[in-house]
């Protein structure tokens, strides 16, 4: 099979470029999708509309979390199965993942549409933001099946050696989102109603393109072969559970930060955090793209017992993460004001608060790249427990501790400082896990 030869024999540096660059671009584009809503709403409707989207963000993050559990967990399992020569098992995993995704998406659709008001209220929307946040959730929920399938098919397409397909679908989706946001928000003046429609239709476009390779019966993974298997479904869900924990943690931390900023600085604080959040998301997705891109390569070679190739891939990836992290810190210190002005151009209070926060928050990027890479690595080799530990530490435990303690001593600066501190502490946990031999089956990687 072609993908066997590529994943198991091609030079690692070439595989890194071939798989990580499309994944970086695809995930970055996916992240930009949410920024597009913020840019159009912030500039053509107002900062409160942008803040309303951020209040609703945990709902989208939970949706993405469910998708990542199935997609990343399934891709890791499929990659290792193909590496071991277990093609039928790989086909069954693919079929199980797709059918489970459809069923779960329908549940999300019903809950999101029916209880949008209650969800918005629970997520912290006050009287000013409640109506818009509820509307965003209700409309976005209608597109849950297309959002879910676009994500998992985009991940699975890498397992059959076609990483560029998801890139093409992502680019098409981005253009669709920009055009639809322009038409629906600026031209038709639909405001908060137009944003989720544009986002939902853009993900639908991505799904239609990403599905094309799996229509062919000759593909090693396709919609026609394989059978649904509850046991395999349970195994892929467990294997991908750390990705779900990461998204759950992101949803919880967004909720916690929204509450903290609302309490300290009101809607201005939430809007400032929203602007920084968009920049942070964009930066983090670059490293997440590396992790997602190399995942199938690591899984395949780990399953084939080619541990030297796994080591080479992780060495390259870690060096790249450190270079990108340093570059992002420099970029934010030099051009942070201009980045923030993409989202907030007419509110000096929000701009000043966000500019102050960005210079504290920027130190996050020195550390989070390695944490993201090693969490993804653990998932790729089937060590879900270690990946879960890393995800829980960086996204929940240390965030909740920091947000509870730091603002008490240094006010709003303590809120901004919470994430960098959490990433530093998490890196110590990663080093501990690695050094203490919790990963005895893993090859020796870079020195932490």
UniProtKB/TrEMBL annotation:
It comes from Turicibacter bilis. The chain crosses the membrane at residues 15-35, 55-78, 98-116, 136-157, 164-185, 191-215, 236-257, 277-300, 321-340, 360-378, 385-406, 412-434. It is found in: Cell membrane. Its main location: membrane. GO terms for biological process: response to antibiotic. This is Multidrug export protein MepA. Keywords: Antibiotic resistance, Cell membrane, Membrane, Transmembrane, Transmembrane helix, Transport. GO terms for molecular function: antiporter activity; xenobiotic transmembrane transporter activity. The keyword Cell membrane applies. It is a multi-pass membrane protein. One of its GO terms (cellular component) is plasma membrane. PANTHER family: MULTIDRUG EXPORT PROTEIN MEPA (PTHR43823:SF3), SPORULATION PROTEIN YKVU (PTHR43823). InterPro entries: MATE_fam, MATE_MepA-like, MATE_MepA_subfamily, MdtK-like. Pfam families: MatE. The lineage of its organism: Bacteria, Bacillati, Bacillota, Erysipelotrichia, Erysipelotrichales. Belongs to the multi antimicrobial extrusion (MATE) (TC 2.A.66.1) family. MepA subfamily. The keyword Transport applies.
């Amino acid at each position: 099979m072609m993908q066997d030869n590529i994943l198991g024999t091609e030079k690692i540096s070439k595989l890194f470029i071939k798989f990580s660059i499309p994944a970086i671009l695809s995930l970055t584009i996916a992240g930009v999708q949410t920024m597009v809503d913020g840019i159009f709403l912030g500039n053509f409707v107002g900062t409160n509309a942008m803040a309303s989207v951020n209040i609703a963000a945990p709902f989208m993050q939970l949706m993405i979390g469910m998708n990542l559990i199935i997609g990343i967990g399934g891709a890791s399992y499929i990659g290792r199965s193909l590496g071991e020569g277990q093609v039928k098992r790989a086909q069954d995993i693919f079929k199980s993942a797709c059918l489970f995704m459809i069923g779960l998406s329908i549940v999300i659709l019903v809950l999101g549409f029916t209880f949008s008001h209650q969800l918005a209220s629970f997520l912290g929307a006050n009287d000013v933001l409640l109506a818009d946040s509820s509307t965003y959730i209700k409309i976005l929920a209608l597109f849950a099946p297309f959002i879910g399938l676009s994500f998992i098919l985009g991940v699975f397409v890498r397992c059959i050696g076609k990483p560029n397909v998801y890139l093409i679908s992502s680019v098409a989706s981005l253009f669709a989102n920009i055009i639809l946001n322009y038409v629906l928000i600026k031209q038709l003046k639909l405001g908060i109603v137009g944003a989720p429609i544009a986002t939902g239709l853009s993900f639908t476009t991505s799904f239609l393109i990403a599905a094309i390779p799996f229509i062919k019966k000759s593909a090693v993974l396709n919609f026609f072969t394989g059978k649904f298997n509850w046991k395999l479904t349970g195994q892929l869900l467990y294997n991908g559970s750390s990705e779900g924990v990461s998204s759950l943690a992101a949803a919880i931390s967004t909720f916690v930060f929204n509450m903290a900023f609302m309490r300290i600085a009101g809607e201005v604080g939430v809007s400032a955090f929203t602007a920084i959040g968009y920049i942070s998301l964009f930066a983090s997705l670059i490293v997440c793209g590396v992790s997602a891109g190399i995942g199938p390569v690591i899984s395949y070679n780990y399953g084939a017992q080619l541990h030297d190739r796994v080591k080479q891939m992780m060495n390259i990836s870690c060096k790249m993460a450190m270079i990108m992290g340093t570059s992002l810190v420099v970029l934010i210190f030099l051009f942070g004001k201009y980045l923030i002005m993409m989202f907030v151009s007419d509110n000096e209070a929000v701009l000043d608060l966000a500019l102050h926060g960005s210079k504290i928050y920027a130190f996050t990027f020195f550390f989070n790249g390695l944490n993201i890479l090693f969490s993804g690595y653990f998932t790729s080799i089937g060590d879900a427990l270690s990946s879960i530990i890393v995800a829980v530490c960086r996204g929940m435990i240390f965030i909740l501790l920091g947000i509870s303690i730091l603002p008490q001593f240094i006010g709003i600066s303590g809120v901004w400082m919470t994430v960098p501190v959490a990433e530093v502490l998490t890196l110590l946990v990663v080093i501990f896990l690695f050094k203490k031999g919790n990963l005895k089956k893993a090859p020796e990687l870079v020195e932490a």
